[in-house]
Specification:
The protein has 164 residues and is mainly alpha-helical. The chain is 70% helix and 0% strand. It has a domain at 47-160. Helix 3 packs antiparallel against helix 7 (119-134), helix 5 (95-107) packs parallel to helix 8 (143-160) and helix 7 (119-134) runs antiparallel to helix 8. This is Hpt domain-containing protein.
Amino acid sequence: MSQREKPIEIINPPNMLRVKVGGRIPAADPDAIARAEKALDQLSVEFGAWLGQEVEKLEAALGRTKAEGLEGEAGDALFTVAHDLRGLGSTYQFPLVTRIAASLARLIETPEKRAAIPLSLAEAHVHSIRAALNQNIRTDDDAVGRQLAEELETRVVALVGEPT
């Protein structure tokens, strides 16, 4: 028997995930989803205040970088808060904040990038996020918000390259 004619054996490993989960997951309960959406609507009045607290953290982290530089713990802290805002902006109904925070996080995501970028560009991102919150500019449907986000993203690409 030649190598090409050699029979093959197919091994199907057991599905351990299914065993651990306990079988099929039941369909979502529409009443539970409706209750969750109602609860989220009730909480939505707090979103602006919560986002404001996150922006204050971002501004405080920026303040530290002005004193200590972008490298080191201050830069790490600024990245962490920017990363958090990237996720929270849309949750708090400000997708524009998510977009600008994502640009900032991309700009300062590694110590190497932080060593090479001007602090003023990070500062421009933070001030833009504050302006979006203060002016209640939630999406890039707003012409000024869109232009601001595009300009910041263009400058980030010029410094650190296209997103991968």
